[in-house]
Amino acid sequence: MRHILDTIADMFPDARCELNHRNPFELTIAVLLSAQCTDETVNKVTAHLFEKYKKPEDYLAVPVEELEQDIRRIGLFRSKAANIQKLCRILIDKYGGEVPREHAQLTELPGVGRKTANVVVSNAFGVPAIAVDTHVERVSKRLGIAKPDDSVLEVEKRLMKLVPREEWTLTHHRLIFFGRYHCKAQNPQCPVCPLLDICKEGQRRMKSAVDRKNKGKTVNLTSKG
């Protein structure tokens, strides 16, 4: 694990949250919108959204249909618009318009699951946490940190056990960068990966590539013969 952590730290020393935000409230909205959507698309939408809506009251001052149109480029925009308004109502009624700092309170908000809560507490409030998104889950399983059939929660628990607590948040960001820009879901960069020596899936991919290449050569030779 130490080898993995040090390697991805060297590869992505500046890894960070790529969702643009200026405060905990904007971060919460951005992460809620990011479900099944790329950070790049979310940032394009929130560039306008966060200028129009500054605080929870602003989101409740418009019909839900107007908010839907403002986030229409986001997947599941109708349910997300409804959740944003419900979330804002709870923030006003229960928390004085502020995003709560406790993980348990965050997960009670509409549209906020465990991953979103982990992102908010770690990035907005400095509480160590590892949020397991699709990149973190994929990389953890490929590198053998977690088992192939582990649930998202089991992946999180394995990482929390293996990674020093003070490195949880940084590791979360670096695993995301590693998965987003290097160990991609499609066409991972196995030939130049510094962790190939411990990645069984990468080794299998490389072997398959060699086998296909050799098979192709055999077919060509046979056809020429």
Automatic annotation (TrEMBL):
<keyword id="KW-0456">Lyase</keyword>
<dbReference type="InterPro" id="IPR004036">
    <property type="entry name" value="Endonuclease-III-like_CS2"/>
</dbReference>
<keyword id="KW-0479">Metal-binding</keyword>
<dbReference type="InterPro" id="IPR023170">
    <property type="entry name" value="HhH_base_excis_C"/>
</dbReference>
<keyword id="KW-0234">DNA repair</keyword>
<keyword id="KW-0255">Endonuclease</keyword>
<feature type="binding site">
    <location>
        <position position="190"/>
    </location>
    <ligand>
        <name>[4Fe-4S] cluster</name>
    </ligand>
</feature>
<comment type="similarity">
    <text>Belongs to the Nth/MutY family.</text>
</comment>
<keyword id="KW-0238">DNA-binding</keyword>
<feature type="binding site">
    <location>
        <position position="183"/>
    </location>
    <ligand>
        <name>[4Fe-4S] cluster</name>
    </ligand>
</feature>
<keyword id="KW-0411">Iron-sulfur</keyword>
<dbReference type="InterPro" id="IPR000445">
    <property type="entry name" value="HhH_motif"/>
</dbReference>
<dbReference type="InterPro" id="IPR003651">
    <property type="entry name" value="Endonuclease3_FeS-loop_motif"/>
</dbReference>
<keyword id="KW-0408">Iron</keyword>
<dbReference type="InterPro" id="IPR011257">
    <property type="entry name" value="DNA_glycosylase"/>
</dbReference>
<feature type="binding site">
    <location>
        <position position="199"/>
    </location>
    <ligand>
        <name>[4Fe-4S] cluster</name>
    </ligand>
</feature>
<keyword id="KW-0326">Glycosidase</keyword>
<keyword id="KW-0227">DNA damage</keyword>
<dbReference type="Pfam" id="PF00633">
    <property type="entry name" value="HHH"/>
</dbReference>
<keyword id="KW-0540">Nuclease</keyword>
<dbReference type="Pfam" id="PF10576">
    <property type="entry name" value="EndIII_4Fe-2S"/>
</dbReference>
<dbReference type="InterPro" id="IPR003265">
    <property type="entry name" value="HhH-GPD_domain"/>
</dbReference>
<dbReference type="Pfam" id="PF00730">
    <property type="entry name" value="HhH-GPD"/>
</dbReference>
<comment type="function">
    <text>DNA repair enzyme that has both DNA N-glycosylase activity and AP-lyase activity. The DNA N-glycosylase activity releases various damaged pyrimidines from DNA by cleaving the N-glycosidic bond, leaving an AP (apurinic/apyrimidinic) site. The AP-lyase activity cleaves the phosphodiester bond 3' to the AP site by a beta-elimination, leaving a 3'-terminal unsaturated sugar and a product with a terminal 5'-phosphate.</text>
</comment>
<feature type="domain" description="HhH-GPD">
    <location>
        <begin position="33"/>
        <end position="181"/>
    </location>
</feature>
<feature type="binding site">
    <location>
        <position position="193"/>
    </location>
    <ligand>
        <name>[4Fe-4S] cluster</name>
    </ligand>
</feature>
<protein>
    <recommendedName>
        <fullName>Endonuclease III</fullName>
        <ecNumber>4.2.99.18</ecNumber>
    </recommendedName>
</protein>
<dbReference type="GO" id="GO:0004519">
    <property type="term" value="F:endonuclease activity"/>
</dbReference>
<dbReference type="InterPro" id="IPR005759">
    <property type="entry name" value="Nth"/>
</dbReference>
<keyword id="KW-0378">Hydrolase</keyword>
<keyword id="KW-0004">4Fe-4S</keyword>
